[in-house]
Request: fold
Amino acid sequence: MLLSVRFIRFIGISIFLVGLSFSAWGQYQVLNIKKLAVFPAMGLGDAVSDQLWWQTRELLTSDLRFTVATRRFMINRQVLAPHGPLKPADVVILSKILEADALVINHIVDKQAHLIVYRGEDGVLLWEDQNNLNSQIPVKEQVLSVFQKLSERFLKQYPFHGYQVSKPQVSSSGSEMSNNNESLIKYGFFGSLPPLVGQSVYWTKINATHPPLLLNINRKSKIATGEVTQIYKQGIVQIKVTEYDNLLDLENTEEVALVLNKESNEVTLNENQASVLGSEYLAREIQKKSNSNQTSPEATFIGFIGTLGLTILLAF
Reply:
């Protein structure tokens, strides 16, 4: 009987520890990316490859959310060359050379057009999708439209709408905030899609279970909530923090990014807004419908198994 109790206790502890290890394993923090580098596609010929490069860059910078490295910048760094899928080590090296947060690859394999986005700091796959090519149409006559859909899909699925910036030295519209509670006044960049005065925004951290990270998000943590009080030129707004746990959490601008509350007023596109970022990159902003907080079925199942193991352990 004693052996049986010990065996059951051992099984309970094992299940509990496995549940904990699997809950922690595969958790990636989805960091906000700002600077992208797009590489030419392989096997399309110089003319079509150049057209596709310009199209991809234009789409990714279409509304001032991202910045994309210029051809001159990539030529000066001696890295402007066609690429297919990359190894993590190659991604890290190229990202450091180009000072990029992420690399974008267009390539074609087995009658499929693939768009891949790698995270620069560790080479982890951020996003990947593909479209089938029509076998009845020459490849060069359809690649632009096919890859356009892929770029638009990436923009639509990108979870962040803006990021925190320093106080701008430009004119604004809206109510001026007093110097009181200065720590509660923050500034966000939303490109050509700034929210309206009175619209609510929130700071968030996002985790994913495994690559591609943007397609496997399993947790969104709301860090703070705010309300837009002023609109500046160049896509910048002033935000008054209304709800928060710890203001220090807002200082890590790589881990925490801004998301619009889409239940508020709709934001209109202003294509005349100018970029406020570096000259080697052209900034544009995205509009994205934010998803509600969710937990993956796998995480729920593992948590259940862990809890069951702990219950068995305590019962004996």
In short: The radius of gyration is 23 Å.
